[in-house]
Design goal:
With 312 residues, the protein is mainly α. 76% of the residues lie in helices and 2% in strands. It has helices at residues 2-25, 31-59, 76-103, 106-113, 116-126, 134-152, 162-181, 183-188, 191-214, 224-252, 254-261, 264-275, 282-300, and strands at 130-132, 302-305. The protein has a two-stranded antiparallel ribbon with strand order 1-2.
Length: 312
């Protein structure tokens, strides 16, 4: 278990630092083209990993079903679900995520995404998949107040970060839908396969949407640092961190794994304060505390699910 704890800590650091990495890279490559290349690299790695996992499963352990490969055949519904997951969880989510990060501060972006578990819990209850009690509603209210402290306090239409903050809220909605919509597939197929194939599918329309912007990028002026950041962000934030996350959900359980995800906003704010010199105001610190406290309360108050579901 200690090895998984260390890997989850590494995941928190990777996702937390990724905000500042891509924010810095956006200076040389616009957000959407940058992310398009990132998705292409990650999709290629995932596709190769899926092929290797399938070969190893049949060659080495043909009767085993694990985190990286399952032997269940894809049904017609499975294929349709993969398409929707790709469109919502990778194409729409990535469009709103990178555009939001580019238009707001790292702290705001990380804190808004920090409320995702609350949104997932409420939607899950609304769909009848899970019963939530008073502790969930208290946690949701506290988390919402934290978002207001960061986003709503002093904000006005036309403000410097409001547009980006709204895009981040849309990305939260996309990820919540992706999480709940993928629960059936994750229960039957390996996390590696579902994540990787849905990413490959979502990358195709993303590239079609972003393609016209590639011509306006001065590729010859892109520094070696930015190219390195792009590759590392794809390999670490999209491939390694996702794999660690779903492997930990299988091994340690979703509730314990989620505790680590709640620390991502703090890691992101800390890295941004040191690297990008973003000012850590008392209001942002209070907002961070409220978001994380609210998320923690929803976890503590979670009741048994009505149907099998995987958490984000």
């Amino acid at each position: 278990m200690r090895a998984f704890d260390l890997l989850l800590f590494l995941m928190v650091v990777i996702w937390g630092a990724n905000y500042s990495v891509i924010k810095r890279a956006f200076v040389e490559i616009p957000p959407l083209p940058f992310n398009a290349l990132r998705l292409v690299i990650a999709s290629a790695v995932f596709f190769a990993a899926i092929r290797i996992a399938r070969w190893r499963a049949h060659r080495v352990a043909p009767d085993r079903t694990g985190v990286f490969h399952t032997h269940d055949d894809l049904t017609r519904r499975d294929r349709l679900d993969l398409v929707w997951l790709g469109l919502i969880g990778h194409c729409a989510y990535q469009l709103t995520f990178v555009s939001g990060v580019a238009a707001t501060s790292v702290s705001n972006a990380a804190l808004i995404l920090g409320a995702t578990p609350v949104v997932v819990a409420i939607l899950s209850a609304a769909l009848g998949r899970e019963r939530i009690g008073a502790m969930h509603w208290i946690g949701a209210a506290i988390s919402a107040s934290g978002i207001y402290l960061v986003v709503g306090h002093g904000a006005s239409f036309g403000g410097a970060t409001l547009h980006g903050d709204l895009l981040m809220l849309l990305s939260v909605a996309c990820w919540a839908v992706y999480t709940l919509a993928g629960s059936r597939l994750i229960a039957r197929h390996s996390p590696l396969y579902v994540t990787g194939m849905s990413m490959v599918i979502g990358t195709v329309p993303y590239l079609l949407i972003v393609a016209p912007q590639f011509a306006s990028v001065h590729w010859g002026a892109v520094s070696a640092w930015t190219w390195t950041a792009l590759v590392l962000s794809a390999l670490l934030a999209l491939c390694v961190a996702y794999t660690v996350w779903y492997a930990a959900v299988r091994r340690l359980g979703a509730a314990r794994t989620a505790i680590y995800s709640n620390a991502v906003p703090l890691a992101a704010m800390a890295v941004a304060a040191v690297w990008l010199h973003e000012r850590m105001t008392p209001i942002k610190i209070a907002g961070a505390t409220a978001v994380i406290l609210g998320v923690a309360l929803t976890r503590l108050g979670r009741k048994s699910p009505v149907a099998v579901a995987i958490e984000e």
